Amino acid sequence: MKNKKALIMLMLLSVNVFSQEFDDIMINPFWSFYSENYLDAVSSGKGNTGIGSLGSISAVYLNPAAINIPLKYQADIQYTYRSNQNWLPSLHISDLYLTQNPYSGSVGFGLRISKNFQTGLLYGNPNSLTLNIGEIIITNEFGEEIGRYNAYEKYIVHSFSVPLVYSTENFRIGLNLNYSLHRRYATFENDEFEGKFDKFNIHAGVIFQPSKQLTIGASFIPQVTGEVTGNSSVVFNEVTKATIPMKIGTGIEYTFKKTPLKLSGDFTYTHTAARENLKDQFSAHAGMEYLVNKHWVLRGGFFNRQDPRDLSGGYWGNPEDSYDQFFLTAGTTYTTKNAAVSIALMDSHLSSNLKITLINAGASFNF
Which positions ≥6 away from 211 have C-beta within 8 Å? Predict the structure, then answer.
């Protein structure tokens, strides 16, 4: 039999994460407070704003209309490092924590077909995490150890995107065609369970520039649902439900005439309440960008993430702990004639319980 820690963990997962009897444990918007990888180092440095800004092909994650390829081609790479987060610390289990999955980056290639039309191809992991459960000891009916293994739950998204952008002098419209492979992995003694949820979706966006100083943007991702199918030698033909919620965002950026300063702000709404026992989330973002000289740009900002749990239903085992987060961000970019290297820091240690640090790095090359 498994040790006490394994039994406690199974019970907590069923209480704290399941939103319905057959909803999937890990392919679930509940975990986005930790799993989101923020795969654009420029927007990450300025409060994760960018719905109303222009950027490299990695800007597709906020608004496909924001993609701006200055020359004929562009190559782009991004990566995110994230600190560990203790999980349910009241249990006093040192090896029960959330940790980053090595798959937490993106690589893209952009193409400017004409003055008005751009496209590209992007692969990335917008969400990923590992819930480390620790070492499980297996004993026989006499309490004698007969084996042990390291237990975990993993969630990884493999995202393939083809953005299409049409632009005029004052207006841009973008459509991202996205196919995502959602994967869940879990260990059962010497076997690994794999759950699969593959789905096509679109991400639409617009940017309007009423003046040289002001840009306004909006983006929309519709909700998708489906079945997660999985099996292993222990669990056969398991079928659970998955919902990727609708998300709507608006953004604005203002550039001062006589000062090399830009201010940006975004507001997003995520229909997390599409999953029972979760609630809708509203997030406000603010950022600034200061041009030091023709090579260096400095950034700063902040944003919030709301607790996704609906505490009114009594389904959560730890409703007294707030999962609200408040992030402070900072970043910089060094630019040469045809290349830009960016780094950003995002930290939520001002929050009461979820204290996470992320470091985002990225580089784009135009030729």
Answer: none
For 234, residues 6+ apart whose C-beta sits below 8 A from its C-beta are: 188, 189, 191, 193
Q: Which architecture, in CATH terms, is 4-366?
A: Beta Barrel (2.40)
Domain ranges of the chain: 4-366
* pTM (two decimals): 0.90
Nearest Cα neighbor of 119 from 177, 170, 50 is 177
Structure token digits, residue 58 = 């990695």
By CB atoms closer than 10 A (0-12, 13-18, 19+), residue 298 is middle
What would the pLDDT profile of 151-200 be if each residue is shown by its tens digit? 889 999 999 999 999 999 999 999 999 999 999 998 877 778 889 999 99
- Neighbouring C-beta atoms of residue 210, cutoff 10 Å: 10
pLDDT of residue 175: 98
Confidence band, pLDDT 50/70/90 cuts, at residue 318? low
Instruction: Scan for tokens 């649902």, then name that residue.
Output: 225
Per-residue pLDDT, 62 = 97
Tell me what pLDDT residue 134 has.
79
The answer to whether residue 10 scores a pLDDT higher than 70 is no
Taking residue 306's Cβ as centre, other Cβ atoms within 10 Å add up to 17
Distance in angstroms (rounded) separating the CA atoms of residues 82 and 91: 23
Contact criterion met (CB below 8 Å) for 349 and 358: no
Let me know: does 271 contact 245? Beta carbons within 8 Å: yes
DSSP assignments along 45-71, one per residue: HTTT--TTS-B-GGGGGT-GGGB--SS
Q: Are 132 and 99 in contact (CB under 8 A)?
A: yes
